[in-house]
Amino acid sequence: MKLRILTILAVVVSGVGMTVVYQAAASLDGTKPPHAVDTAGKAIPESSASQPDKPFILSKDSADPKWGEMKPEMAFDHSKHNTDAKHTIDGKTPTACVYCHHTEQPMPVAGQPYLKKSERTEVLTTDQLDKSKQPVNSCRKCHFQEASEETAEFPPKGVTYPKEVGKSPSGKLTNDNAYHTKCIDCHNAAMKRDPTLKAPQACADCHVKK
Question: How far is residue 90's CA from residue 39's CA, in Å, rounded to a whole number?
């Protein structure tokens, strides 16, 4: 009898252990990514019909061999980047929602024929979001895969950039391609406009060195 009870307990414990391992693995397989968290520790949802009310930390799973996750002080302030002219490329025009949320507009997009997926029939703006209440996908819904090396393959299996666009093929929709292209390009342009700004540009500005 005791042996039977012990056997049952062993099976249950093993099952629980396998469940924990499976869930941990599932959270890192691109299906359930460990989404960004705000400065209060609240997870940023995969999609939402409301804008973040606190700054949030983008990287929770850096796969770079040299640089780790984002420094806590490098939290991204969503409200400043879409309302404060100081946090824009030209210092005058508020950054359009679709600069970052580039698939939140009807397809095809002029000049960006490689964009394929959209669930929105109108271009995303603050007013459009308020009226439609249609959730906006977070960056990490698509850009979650681990870092990948560039490939000479054309078109790449993931993002298909036409040759005339002049962008290196990535092969995957990666965090490093998405964030670095959007964030650093914008920061570089802003710093040329106003050298007194403190827009992060180098690896050590944002990431913890491993």
Answer: 28
* Alpha carbons 168 and 177: distance in angstroms, whole number: 10
The secondary structure element, H or E, covering residue 126 is helix 126-132
Query: Are the beta carbons of 71 and 207 closer than 8 angstroms?
Result: yes
Write the CA distances from 119 to 1, 58, 88, 132, integer angstroms. Answer: 59, 23, 27, 12
Q: Contact, 17 vs 112, CB < 8 A?
A: no
- Listed in sequence order, the residues at least 6 apart from 159 whose beta carbon sits closer than 8 Å to its beta carbon are 114, 169, 170, 171, 172, 173, 177
pLDDT at 60 over 80: no
Q: What is the DSSP string of 3-66?
A: HHHHHHHHHHHHHHHHHHHHHHHHTTSSSS----EETTSPBPPSEESS--SS-EE--S----SS
Integer Cα distance of 191 and 205 in angstroms: 14
> Which residue is it, tokens 């209060």?
40
> pTM for the whole thing?
0.73
**Over the stretch 89-123, which tens digit does the pLDDT of each residue have?**
888 888 899 999 999 999 988 888 778 788 899 99
Residue of 95, 56, 51, 77 lying closest to 190 (CA atoms): 95
How does DSSP assign 90-104, residue by residue?
SSSSPPPHHHHSTTS
- Do the beta carbons of residue 183 and residue 207 sit within 8 Å? no
Q: What is the DSSP letter of 69?
A: E
- Pairwise CA distance, residues 87 & 95, whole Å: 8
